[in-house]
Amino acid sequence: MAGLELLHRSVAESLSCPQDALLCYLHWRLISHGYRCLGAGDQPDPNERKSELLPTGWNADKDLYTLRYQSKDDSQELLLKGVMVDGSIIINVMDLGSQKVVDLTLNVADYVDAEHLTDFEKVYKNSEELQAKIVSDIISPFGAPKERVTPKEEPKPEKKVPPATSRDYDPLRIPPRHPYGGRQPDWSDPMGPFAVGGEDLDPFGGRRGGMILDPLRSGVPHPIIDPSSGLPNRLPPGAVPPGARFDPFGPPGFIPGRPNPDHLPPPGYDDMFM
After folding, report:
1. Is the pTM of the predicted complex or chain greater than 0.70?
2. Where is the composition biased (Pro residues) (predicted)?
3. Over the stretch 242-265, which tens digit does the pLDDT of each residue have?
4. Who contacts 34 (Cβ-Cβ below 8 Å, separation ≥6)?
């Protein structure tokens, strides 16, 4: 019964009759189920505030107890009245919002020892039975008040930043364009004995080697184009940046990158009568 002993000690000096101790126990059960006391009496006080303690003057009238409670989420406000009749107390509780009313009658002597009102270890009797009656007949009919929940903010998705490289990342930089869908072809060994006809046999398998020999990849070294070809003097160093597209000023002595017209002559090309 956590909290009941502290509550009893806070009001022990003002307990003058058994029904005072019984109301103290009832107050503790309401507090432990999420209610807070607003004050004593039927009318609200402008300066009142919700508290776990019993208000001043709560037991001024030993025959009629009047207390007001409110749930933590402010959804319920209860008006509690306890009336003494021939050694029994009739507890009447009304929800001011729904006008729902519940009541409970208790024989005070069955649950409170009148000779030990200030001794917490001896003042209450049959505590489990008393607690069960209060919960089932008073608290449960109104339902447990809901805790006020603060909505949680959903975490914002983290922005993915590309890993740092030797070059600074620039989102506006256009990536270089490459043929073959951004990948370089994997040229197999042109001199391989099984490379010829590979693409014709398996066009989707990524193999290399067609029926016609590619002179650019025949394994023969190609001469370097001289950009000064056709000029009386040579161009100064750096005049043509490396990798730049550049047409020589004059016709070179050969046309690189093109097959020899006589590479695949037709049958009987040297027959003068054809």
Report:
1. no
2. 249-268
3. 766 666 666 655 444 455 556 667
4. 71, 72, 144, 145, 147
Q: What is the mean pLDDT of the chain?
A: 77
Tokens of 267: 């049958």
HSE (side-chain half, CA atoms, 13 Å) at 87: 7
Q: How far apart (Å, rounded) are the C-alpha atoms in residues 133 and 123? A: 18
Query: In this structure, is residue 23 part of a structural domain?
Result: yes
Nearest alpha carbon to residue 81 among 71, 68, 70 = 68
For residue 134, being part of any structural domain is answered with yes
For residue 45, the model assigns a pLDDT of 83
Compute the half-sphere exposure of residue 203: CA atoms within 13 Å on the CB side of its CA: 2
Q: Is residue 79 part of a domain?
A: yes
State the residue range of the domain holding 121.
Answer: 4-46+62-142
Residue pLDDT, tens place only, 26-47: 999 999 999 999 999 988 888 8
Contact between 55 and 37 (Cβ < 8 Å): yes
Alpha helices in 4-51 (DSSP H): 4-11, 18-32
Sheet holding 64-71, edge to edge: 35-40, 64-71, 77-85, 88-95, 101-107
**Residue 18 maps to which CATH number?**
3.40.1000.30
Give exposure, 184-198, as e/b (b: 16+ Cβ within 10 Å).
eeeeeebeeeebbeb
The structural domain count of the chain equals: 1
In a domain, 131, yes or no: yes
- The Cβ of residue 159 has, within 10 Å, a number of other Cβ atoms equal to 5
